[in-house]
Structure formats: C-alpha cells, structure tokens
Amino acid sequence: MKYNFVFSQTDTRPMYQQIMEQITQRVAVGDWPPGTPLPSIRELATETKVSIITIKRAYLELEREGVIATQQGKGSWVSEALDMNSLQREELIQHLQQATKLANSLAITEDELLQMLKKYL
C-alpha cells in the first residue's frame, strides 16, 4: 500500500517530527479515523526510505501524545480514545499560523487577511 508521505529537504525539523505531523494531519482531517491500522514500522521505513529507528521514534512520540495506540505483536492504530476536537483545533491553528506567515511575506495587512478569511466563512 502507498502512503505517499512527502518530506521537505528545506524543513529544518527532524525527520521523525515531519512523519508525526503527516500522520497527525491525516488523522485530523479524517483520512485515518480512530481504529485505522497504521503501517508497520518496517513497512513505513521501507516505503519512505527512512530508518526504522526514525519511524519508531515518531510512533513512540505519537503514542505518548495519545494519537496512536500500539500493542506488541498486533501493531499500531489510530487511538480510539483520541480527542478529535482538540486535534482538529490544533491542525487549524497550524494552518492559520502558516497563512499568517504567508500573508506577512506578501505584505498583506491584518484587515485584508481578515476580509479574506471572512470570505470563506
């Protein structure tokens, strides 16, 4: 199965954080609902050409954050106890932060940005 992870060479964050972000984003937007099995660490490492250690760290951090659950011998899946509302709010905040950075780089004023946002509400 293809998971189509995309990594940026210009992203200064460690690879495990990029993996965590992409998994979290898929969960937040509903592509991977609670209970969805995740690829095995080895499978994802092979597909993404990232070390097993890096994938394992991403999975451990995601489990610590409550995004995924793991059971030895059974694999990992999106946590059934996940607070989707909180996760989706965090995803929205990240998108708004990115939009604000882009607006600043384009010299868009706060009023202009708010008008653009209101257009889509």
Give an overview of the whole structure.
By secondary structure, the chain is mainly alpha-helical. The longest helix has 22 residues. Strands 1-2 form a two-stranded antiparallel ribbon. It is built from five helices and two strands, in the order H-H-H-E-E-H-H. 56% of the residues lie in helices and 7% in strands.
Helix count from the secondary structure assignment: 5
Quaternary structure type:
single chain
Number of strands: 2
Q: Write out the strand line-up for the largest beta sheet, numbering strands in chain order.
A: 1-2
Distance between the termini: 36 Å
Overall residue-averaged pLDDT value: 90
In sequence order, what are the helices and strands, one letter per element? HHHEEHH
Shape: globular
Major sheet summary line: 2 strands, antiparallel
- Could you say which structural class the secondary elements and strand pairing correspond to? mainly alpha
Strand content: 5-15%
Show unreliable segments. none
Query: In angstroms, what is the radius of gyration?
Result: 17 Å
Percent helix, as a range, is 55-70%
